[in-house]
Amino acid sequence: MINKIIHYFSANGSTYWSYVWQHISLSLAALLVSLVLGLSLGDWAYRSPRLRQWITGTSQALRVIPSLGVLFILIPFIGVGVLPALIALIFLGLPPILVNTVVGFEQVPDALLETGRGLGMTQRQLMVKVSFPLALPYILNGIKLSLVEIIASATLATYIGAGGLGNLIFTGLQLFRYDLLIIGGGSVALLSFLSMLILDLGIKWSSVK
Questions:
Q1: How many C-beta neighbours within 10 Å does residue 164 have?
Q2: What pTM was computed for the model?
């Protein structure tokens, strides 16, 4: 098995790295869009209690929709390729960021906000200097959960021609090539582990600061 894995890398190194790049670029694009939407909707939900329950409830409902099901729903409307895969991953990555953003802002003590207003701080200054720094550990935790789920689910992008490490996994399944399964699955697991490690360090740093 080890010899087969070594042979694959020696013969298909450039192909492997192209799969890794496709997987990472698709995952980061989905995370970026999820982050922008999650922070915006989270702030909006926090400021509007009437909408908070509806927004958070809807985001949680999105989590029960399988990514593969979203892909198949989107194919008749926008075809195959990167776009439907990106939209499906955004559906998956948005809820953790949105919910954790709301939770983070809710943990900011009202006394600190009142003190800031008493010092003449504007709403934007309160957000930048008080609310966001205190909510940052929660937001980073949401980003961690989102990114891990996105990286794992991005393997499904292979089904609709969006590329990524899923090519190795599904080719291995079809051809009973366990070396490809190990390479593809191990690479996805390693990417997830590294993303968790980096974001855990960010959470620890933001909590200490």
A1: 28
A2: 0.87
